[in-house]
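Session log. Operator J.P. requested a structure for one protein chain; no other inputs attached. Running the standard single-chain path with token output.
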Amino acid sequence: MKHIFRLLILVAVSAQIGFAQNLDGKWALGFHGGGNMWVNDLNKLKVGPGAELMVRYGLSTRFSLGLATGWELLKASQDPTSAGNPYGYLKDDAIPASLIAWYHFSPGKSFAPYAYIGVGGMMYKRRTTGNIYVPSDKWQSSIHIPFGVGFETFVSKKVSVNVDLGYRLLDDWTDYRKGTSDNNMMDSYATAKVGLNFYFGTSKSDDDDGDRLTNGEEEKLGTDPTKADTDGDGLNDGDEAMKYKTDPLKADSDGDGLKDGEELNTYKTDPMKADTDGDGLSDGDEVMKYKTDPLKADTDGDGLNDGDEVMKYKSDPLKVDTDGGTVNDGTEVTRGSDPLNAMDDVPKPKKEELKVEVGKAITLEGVLFLTGSAQIGPNSELILEKAYNTLAQN
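Structure written below.
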């Protein structure tokens, strides 16, 4: 009883956390156990034990076909006995075997109810009190028509817990008494069983790798149905095919040197555009080679896009003023000066502008050098030239 209670707890838990599963194209092997109640011409019903072995194949997502066999101990008693019912106790050791068809109501779900019906036969021997065989120890036979309902809930992709409630129709001789108009014309028994089903194989409607693409869809795409991320780019095949529209067979869909997963998750660039910011540099070159921002066309904000700086002007896309001459690169390009030459940042005055009035004092301001250099800046050069002219003329 404790084992049955634990199994029922497992059923309840697995119904909440179970794995969705399709059955078509798969073989199932089931082991079920429980009890039965034999309905016959004797007036006292008793519960007997039973066990079942089932093998089944999924013909589609909703229909499966298989065989079931096992062992049932059917028990009943008569009180009081009579000429028509001389046995106070009877039990049948029965071995049923049937061909059964199942209909599955919720294909692809973790909780999967079903109904079934079948046809077959049953071999049995009758015994009464003291284990005396009635009428002999030879095997008897009966029709066996099973039908019922049940459900299974998947605790993994290959294992389900199965609960079954059914009824089995038999002929009217299993209790060693033919029915009459005032009693049963056919014997039968009810059954309740709990057990496990084990699944083998796969189907096109399954999603074996959990990437939200069925095996059939993956077959059409050419992806690996056993790998969630076929190209190893950090995105699962389902997201690539349905959400991002990237190529699940190519780690770098746009060929920019960055994997699709890196573009989406790390750099926030477009995995379907080689140059997300349209600056003339691929996202991969910006990230790995030039260290510029693939989301900003003008990383340093100097008025020139990164591609022009790198390929056309040879200036530094990470420095506003490449030559350090105090004028930004964009301004230099616009006015026609060289962004790589600090000496032309400040235009030189005409000669007459450098003349110094005789007797007039001049202010010698501080002399400044280019950034990180021993070379004086263009403004300092003008100051020194004026000072030189003053000394030379006076």
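Operator note: The longest strand covers residues 111-128.
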